[in-house]
């Protein structure tokens, strides 16, 4: 209890330093090129020089107060022991002023750390988001969306937490150690030397316990990830789990992982919880050494009672930063590793949208000339692909899954660049057409509908911001979804849930088609646009699209051959090659690949 009495008088904990074992031993992710990443990260700090200077001043003043306060306490105790009460009042007032300044600086430091971290991550998050939006579809297709999201959220948040908590703690910790050592040596070099004996024990205990804890904390994180994955799969696929009566098996897998997580978690928490008591024992050993040596020196007249009291406080104040700096270093390493992952995305080349020509006066003649393409080098998808689409013509691409139909659309939209050959619109290579203008004059409806958590009206306006209410309603009527919209609670102002989850799949597809109608494009692309719509609604959409497609070049990809029987030209693809072309009647008469596909769908013939 003697320790509590002595340290309770001046026990200033440096803000931002976490004394508990909660974060100890957590898995540290190390950067590959830490120095380069750190210097690059400093560029974001350079934008906030005034805040950093103010923060540094606040930390310095705060540390000076925390280091100087025990000396004032020492003088007060000496005055009491010597019964010099006349001088005591001045010391107490001075101590009060120091405590007030310390508290004010602590508040300022907390506020400035939060401001600094949020401003830095704001710039970084904005740069990352702008980069992702401007990246090619190819990059986004070839990289895990979850990993990209993790860089935007987890890695950036890691940097934010480190800046707000660890950076100021690192500065204050180093300054506290330096200031404490200086004060201890100034008061009594002999006692300072005795106090430093516990530093070796502190470093040894921290190093070995952290190593043991890191092993279990790392394993716990892995198991926690597995457990979360099991829960996510179960929730997402609950209908399948229930339909096949696999609840017992799912629960068994969950229990197995949960049991192992519990065992590892107990060991991790025991080791983590032992850090505090171990450090407390070491500190108590230090107190015993100071008390014994201080008592001897006091008897010899080398030090006063007040100095001994100050040393007890300094010993505790000296040990804490050493313990915390080990933790902070791990957090900084993890943050730099996260910054490295963020910079890896920022260093990716942006999509090339350049082009000197526009489609403002285009008629819509499309031509594929000897096009070769592969998503992955060595695995060719299109082989010497040739196709001519005249202006205003309705061309359908059909074929089995994997034949390359959607690839043709990806190349036309410049989502990917071809390997060989050329693609032209009105004789102009699409590489020479401004990419934004190309896509502005081309509307595409995909098989997987994408609707945003916004009003119906704003979702329809997404394809053309300057569309009038009259044009929006007209487009909805052509898509046969006007009545459906009017039956929603607020009509066109009704809010849609994320991905339009408050609508049926068919309704979402109708809105997606209506959005393409609003765009009023020169080229219309429908990629399995009616695959999720019932037969009756499909017929209504076909009738509406017949009028819409007049004087527009249209490319239709469909598995349902009933939707493209009136196409001007039907192109049959197989393994990335054109194997047949013609209209519906001529292709049936030829009894080739199209005939086989048709008979499979409508005559039930096994191919």
From TrEMBL:
InterPro entries: AAA+_ATPase, ABC1_TM_dom, ABC1_TM_sf, ABC_transporter-like_ATP-bd, ABC_transporter-like_CS, P-loop_NTPase, Type_1_exporter. GO terms for cellular component: plasma membrane. It is a multi-pass membrane protein. SMART domains: AAA (SM00382). One of its GO terms (molecular function) is ATP binding. Residues 53-334 form the ABC transmembrane type-1 domain. This is ATP-binding cassette, subfamily B, bacterial. It comes from Lachnospira eligens (strain ATCC 27750 / DSM 3376 / VPI C15-48 / C15-B4) (Eubacterium eligens).
